[in-house]
Amino acid sequence: MDEKIIRRTLIDVMRRQGISPEQAAQETARGFGIDPSQFSGVLEEIKHEADRNFVLDSPPGVFADGLHAEASTMRWYNGPQEGDRFWPQLRAKLESGSLKSVVDEIENASTKVVAHLGSPYVRNLSKRGLVVGYVQSGKTANYTAVMAKAADAGYRLFIVLSGLHNNLRRQTQVRLTNDLGDEYWHRWTSADADFGGAEPGAPVLVGGVPSLAVVKKNQSRLNSLIDWLDTIPLEIRRRSPILLLDDEADQATPNSAQARDQLTRINQLVRDLWSKIPTGTYIGYTATPFANIFMDPDDEEELYPADFIIDLPRPDAYYGAERVFGREPIDDADEPDSGLDMVREVTDDEAECLRAPSAKTERLLFDPDLPQSLIDAVVWFVVATAIRHARGQEREHSSMLVHTTHYVQPHFAMKARLDDLLNEFRIRSEKSDQSVFLASYQKESARAAEEATLPLPAWNDVEKRLSTVLKSIRVVVDNGYSDDRLDYGRKENGRSVVETVIAVGGGTLSRGLTLEGLVVSFFTRTSNTYDTLLQMGRWFGYRPGYEDLPRIWMQPSLEADYKFLALVEEEIRQDMRHMERMKVTPRQLGVRVRAHPGRLAIVARNKMHHVDAVRISYSGQRLQTFIFYEDNRILTGSNNGALVENLASTRNFLDACRSAGNAVDSRKSARWLFKDVPAAVVTSLIRSYTFHEDQSTVRKEDMLGWIERAAFDRPWNVVVVGSDKKHRDLEGQQIELGEVDLGFDRLVPAVNRAPLKDPKHTTGTANIKALMSHNDWFADLDPDQVRSLGDRAKEDPKGVRRELADGRGLVVIYPVSKDSVPMGAALKTDSRRDMEAAEHLVGLGLVFPNVDREGFAIEGTYYSVHPDWEPSAVDDEEDEIPEDREATMGSSGTGEAESSE
């Protein structure tokens, strides 16, 4: 018998009857009157494929032990199959659109998500999970693919909870209708009508046709949906698997009541909705999962992702917080993006002038002049759009965001000011005065040229398109009181309109809604929480064909906040990957979230009822200094300055090492080794050394506290690394890097570490990116032993130290030349500059001893769920959910209103 026919038959029987592969083989063999052993080859292939889908390498996920057991017994999803209807149709559409380059990524990621859903053929089986993406990274494409595959696999009703605002619900509805197609789907909602519940549900579910409802998180809509589900007999709901997909799952769904024993209305309603689904899966999608992972993991009625958490990979073409703003490395093996030259400054004075007063009567009269930074932003928007047109993108939308306040009335005053400015530019353009645009072109067009995938057009090509661009620009206010909202599907005379738009708004532009072709963002809106600030970053996403053109105008303090949040994002994902390798359940997950050292909170206090400070350990960790003061500023309380004091502290430390340890002088490699130095000597160095204030991953008090509590009896080895190389410039002349007196019988040759170039370079600061090499993990170990381990030394340096270092810590000291210059590849890429330090620098690398003692850790840097947490008093804060203005309206009408933000 043909193997393809056998395979198709077995999978069809598995899907229809909800049985295991082995049971399907027995059933099929009985029908054909043959021995089941004839199916053994195909059976093993099906089981192997199901296992592979469940633990697919990309994306990583954290999942419950029960799901492992289920995979072993059910192996219900084997990926797309021949004869599937919905996924092949969606894939063909994706391959013909703007996402064609990432279709394979979408297929792999969505296959893994579907493999984690509850089997649609096991009655009363329900699962709860979370999918974590990036802001504007294509989460909708992923969950659309998940819906298509789940429909092929047997899910029947799809409920998508789509944010709080009408425009986002409408955008999601249009997108799903377009991508999934009208044929073969029954739709309970449309672009113009939210859920009303007028049509009986039972006949559709019994008929086996997949159906879709896209519903706003609104009290009246959710009540209608719950009442409607109640009218469907329980037995039909048991036989009709339901996928409840919560888009922007961290908004409104988590409980934010002031008291721990109270529930907010939306949280209660989503819980009630989930309770009506006996067979199916609740799956949340978000880019900011902080509130979700802070839910109570022990509350069975809560929507905590108890069964799985999946991390979507970051696509290569995606521009997120790390790529745009850069971030600090988590450790020395980490090589983050350094950021792009796309951020422009809005001064604090300018931002203050645009900050609307809180008193309503004053807001009605608020009409500030446009600051120069906003005028510059508008000018660049015109130029950048003209560049896109010259590149052949005339039929693509082009947008600018202006987000200065969440208050509604000032948006209209801002629109009037911007209209006046554009009219002035149009008049000047008609008089052939393009000087302001030429100046912007010359200043901005090449500043992110390394990102470009298309050539930069000459000024003449750009100039002749400026008039057309200026005529096409509309200024649109997008808020609950505007009659002219953003609508990229707008048509005139039956033809689709290409929008060139400046969007002015607040809350409605802060989450979920995509601004098509976003080129320029002017952003002065502040927030006190991680999730809100990240979601406001509408500039994150894909910029095909204009990767070099986006610009963001904001205050330097906001830029620093986004750089910090890039570090937070990466740490969360690293924790998730680690948890997956350890096969730890989300119920035990306790994902750590780094606390901001200043004003930012992770989420609102009323969403942190179940979290506590995490006790963190430095056991086996490696840290290094790579940011240094170049000027000899007075920071230490001594008249000598930081650089001189660090040299003196190092000499004193090495003197103590000579007294306490056994020194080994290795003259050939310009290295000195001290063995078994007491921990108290090491803490004296850490205590006296001045770390740069921007070296956020190195926290002196935390390190000292951990050593003194957890590793007070562990010895350390100390290695001093000098340069053993002779460097020459391009003309063959020897480069003199100098020597440092560290108290040895000879001077230590300084090493070369040229700082990175930074357009926003702060005078007196040098970022060398990395001080240590990978081999420095083992600087104190027997080289022959390390070499004998082969690839293990490269892949698992922590494990190698755990095995060979016998619990010792390691200090590596590098004297860094004040005369460091770019060499090798840095000369070709022009990525580094000359060091400008007043004195030679001392760099420190620390590899902490491996300590297995429980209870010896430092508190307060990270937060996580903690089941035994005892509540303390919290400050009163307002609910973040907009006022429900539909509460007094009919549940089936389409004339919806929104909050005033």
TrEMBL record:
Source organism: Mycobacterium kyorinense
Domain of life of the organism encoding this protein: Bacteria
Biased composition (Acidic residues): 873-883
Signal peptide residue numbers: none
Residue ranges of domain Putative endonuclease Z1 in the record: 373-598
Name by which UniProt lists this protein: Putative endonuclease Z1 domain-containing protein
One family name in Pfam for this protein: Z1
Record-annotated membrane-spanning stretches: none
Location of the region described as Disordered in the Swiss-Prot/TrEMBL record: 867-901
InterPro entries membership: Put_endonuclease_Z1-dom
Biased segments, Low complexity type: 890-901
